[in-house]
Amino acid sequence: MRIELALACWLISASAWGAEPLVDEFLPRVVKVMGLPMTRKVTVKRVSRVEAEQILRREVDVKAAARLGEALVAIGLLPAGTRLEDLAPDFNQQNVAGFYDLREHTLFLIADQPDEALRPIIAHELAHAVQDANVDLLSKMKGSEDATLAFTAVLEGQAQATAALVMAGWLEDHHVAVEGMAGLLSDTTARSAAEAADQAPVPWLGLQLRFPYVAGRALIEASATADDPIARGLLQRPPASTAEVMMPSRLAAPLAGDLQLTRLLPGARASVTTTLGRAQLELLGGGLGEGWRGDRLESVHVGRRLVTVWSVAFATEAQAIAFAEVVKGEREGAVVALLVGTRNEAVKKRALRAFVR
After folding, report:
1. Going by DSSP bridges, is the β-strand pair 106-110/268-274 parallel, antiparallel, or unpaired?
2. What are the tens digits of pLDDT across the range 169-179?
3. Partners of 296 in the β-ladder
4. 199 and 111 inside one domain
5. 24 and 157 together in one domain
6. Which residues neighbour 333 within 8 Å (Cβ) at sequence distance 6 or greater?
7. 83-101 pLDDT per residue, tens
8. Domain of 139?
9. How many domains does the chain have?
10. Do 319 and 235 have their domain in common?
């Protein structure tokens, strides 16, 4: 699912052109900044906000969202009673100004956007179109929750860096040159995303919007060079986790292997198996992800009961204890296992011990 925000209004207003001429005007600029070829035609459609909501809802796997939502409720990352499958599309529809659909390879623009906002939106979305033409984005976004959020940070970080450079160049060509304009425009995008995220009905949903823009911007800045201002290599070799996005110099591979609760519990039906990652861990409290060395979330149904085990590995015992102070206490239908180290066998033993207690 794509979530895009309009940037601030620009100093030069647009004329009443349609979207297609703007795409023709900006695509060469986007390709030049990104240094990547564009091998397919971009289809552009202007739709109403109601139509946009229908398209965004169509992209949601309702059953998968419901399963993930109940697991997140069980471990305390979502409030009780949250229906993620309904909440996410509603929030996204309210904040969307334009989005690039990976399945239809189509740029959708919301018809109620003012003309002066079209240029930065189109520049941003065309960056996604170029990414899509060079990498199979859909396949790369089918990993764990952690890996998908980390890859989304690459996509949005590159897109906002591209849009900022394109718009800075366009403004200069129209005799509106301001020193540091690209940085200012990128700051505006990240700040707008953060402000919108603060209005999310639940913090978890806000993170899905804030992290790709804010952390993604920082990642591109840390990885870019003068010859490669958008860090093209990250498309082919993206960070494996949100921890790596937050600290590119420190690799932290997610834990491998699962508890396989379906084998441990007779009659259990699989629901969710994923890695949440450092960024989501810190929703329980700032700094709690420090020392994160991986985690696995497993959820199964046994009859009418949901059983969830969240195994979290930390580098030191002190970090595990700090996390334990926040999540201590039994949660109905859920167990949080706190671990030290990254050895898979240790994960199984410690988590299982907590589970059978």
Report:
1. unpaired
2. 988 888 776 66
3. 311
4. yes
5. yes
6. 74, 305, 306, 307, 308
7. 998 887 777 766 677 889 9
8. 19-246
9. 2
10. no
